[in-house]
Write a structure and sequence with these properties.
With 206 residues, the chain is of the alpha+beta class. 47% of the residues lie in helices and 33% in strands. The protein contains five helices and six strands, in the order αββααααββββ. It comes from Flaviaesturariibacter amylovorans.
Amino acid sequence: MFQKAKNMDTAFRQVRLFCLSVVIACTLICGAVIYSNYKSTAYRESRIYVLASGKAIEAFAGDRKENLPVEARDHVRTFHKYFFTLDPDDKVIQSNITSALYLADGSARSLYESLKENNYYTGLISGNISQEIEVDSVALDMNAYPYHFRCWATQQIIRPSSITQRNLITEGWLRNVSRSDNNPHGFLIEKWNTLENRDLKTEPRH
C-alpha cells in the first residue's frame, strides 16, 4: 500500500513537472511570437512609399539625428541656390529671394536690401544678365549648437557678351526651428556673412 502511494506521489510530481515545462515552453513561444510580430510591424511602419512620376518609390523613415548633417548641408545648399540663382525677370528674382529669406534670419534680408538699394537687381534686368551658382562643399561643426557652417561655391555671371566666374565663401550658424512647407528641413541660418567673393576669370561668349 505504501509502495502504491509512493508511486502515485512520483507520478504526480512527474505530471506536475511536465505541465510546468509545457507552461514555460508556451510562454516562451508566445513571447517570441509577440516580439517577432512587433519587429515586423515596426519594420513595415518604417517603410514609406513616395509617388514620383507615376511610380511608387520606397523610402525609409529614420531618426532625425541620423540625418542631421545631411539635412543641414542641404539646407545651406538650398538657401544659396535660391539667393544667388537669378535671371533678368523681376518675378523670378522675387520668387527666389522670397524662398531664400524663409531659410535665414535678418542677416540675409540686410544683404538683399543693400543690393536692392544699390540697384543690383535692376541692373540684372536691364542688362539681361543671369546669375547661377554651384555649391562645391559645405563644412559643418556639429559639436556645438547652433551649428557653424562654411560654404564654398562658384558663381557664374552670364552677360550677353561674356561669362564671369567668381568664387564665393560664406559662413553662418544653423538654429533649429519648426518644419514647414517653406522650410522643410527645420533650420534657420543666422549671422550669415560673406567671407570672400572675387572674380576668377572672364571669358567672351561666342
